[in-house]
């Protein structure tokens, strides 16, 4: 294929080693050397400085590397668009999602997408909001789903859906029998919280500070599932997304505390790196999610 020599060259440049590039591309070292030699003959310039320990780009090689990356990206995009004409979307997407989205919202959406586009390889990483932002910024993740606000200049942020936050308590908690819970009734309670870096924790902290609520004691868990189980076990009260506790509310295992004159809501957002090249698979995935952003 016409792009094969460029793909080999880019791989050698990024790995700084012929043998490692061969292993990555499933080629022999002589095969890798032949591709590089043919490129150098074609361009009439030396592209790589070779030594026994490493490989470095020449000035000409640096120029070719920059353009080769663009050529390969355009070729892959064209290839995907051609497959699209045949109702085929291919490629891979590494998705990052905060716990609430990744555990309670995304699985059903992924199942729909996978059924429609079975040739797309999907990989999901779940972490707190801070971790997902870091993964997108470092280009380890193609796309991220996060909770709450984000202020990063190098990210494109697309609003996804609103999330209702509610206060919950064990079924046996004194507040669970209240028709309406006022600010004074929340003073000096035991709270179950998420860890710092979590969107849920940021929302809870903001609420406590805004309402000037003092906390008697707090317990910290690094997952919303852990917080929910702790509340159900009687450890304390918590602020969680309604998505997380729907089943427990229906069963009566956990009780919602109706906060007087408060409708608590936050934003779910889709984030992508501004400089990350977009793939057709990722674009199709996002479009599908935005169309069906409401729970069916």
UniProtKB/TrEMBL annotation:
It comes from the Bacteria. This is LysR family transcriptional regulator. Belongs to the LysR transcriptional regulatory family. Residues 1-58 form the HTH lysR-type domain. GO terms for molecular function: DNA-binding transcription factor activity; transcription cis-regulatory region binding. Keywords: DNA-binding, Transcription, Transcription regulation. It comes from Paenibacillus odorifer. The lineage of its organism: Bacteria, Bacillati, Bacillota, Bacilli, Bacillales. InterPro entries: LysR_HTH_N (IPR000847), LysR_subst-bd (IPR005119), WH-like_DNA-bd_sf (IPR036388), WH_DNA-bd_sf (IPR036390).
């Amino acid at each position: 294929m016409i792009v094969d020599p460029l793909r080999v060259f880019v791989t050698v440049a990024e790995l700084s080693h012929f043998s490692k590039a061969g292993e990555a591309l499933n080629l022999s070292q002589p095969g890798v050397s032949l591709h590089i030699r043919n490129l150098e003959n074609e361009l009439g310039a030396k592209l790589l400085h070779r030594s026994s320990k490493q490989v470095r780009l020449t000035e000409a090689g640096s120029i070719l590397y920059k353009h080769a990356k663009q050529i390969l990206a355009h070729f892959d995009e064209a290839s995907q668009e051609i497959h699209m004409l045949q109702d085929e979307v291919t490629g891979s997407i590494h998705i990052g999602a905060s716990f609430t989205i990744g555990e309670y919202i995304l699985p059903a959406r992924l199942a729909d997408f996978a059924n429609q586009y079975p040739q797309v390889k999907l990989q999901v990483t779940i972490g707190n909001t801070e971790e997902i932002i870091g993964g997108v910024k470092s280009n380890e993740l193609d796309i991220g789903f996060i909770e709450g606000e984000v202020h990063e200049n190098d990210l494109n942020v697309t609003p996804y859906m609103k999330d209702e936050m509610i206060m919950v308590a064990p079924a046996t908690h004194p507040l669970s029998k209240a028709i309406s819970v006022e600010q004074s009734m929340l003073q000096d309670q035991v709270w179950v919280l998420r860890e710092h870096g979590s969107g849920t924790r940021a929302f809870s902290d903001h609420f406590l500070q805004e309402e000037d609520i003092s906390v008697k004691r707090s317990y910290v868990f690094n997952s919303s599932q852990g917080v929910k189980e702790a509340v159900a076990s009687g450890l304390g009260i918590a602020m969680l997304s309604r998505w997380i506790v729907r089943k427990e509310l229906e069963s009566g295992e956990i009780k919602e505390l109706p906060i007087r004159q408060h409708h608590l809501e936050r934003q779910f957002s889709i984030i992508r790196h501004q400089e990350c090249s977009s793939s057709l698979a990722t674009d199709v995935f996002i479009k599908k999610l935005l169309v069906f952003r409401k729970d069916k």
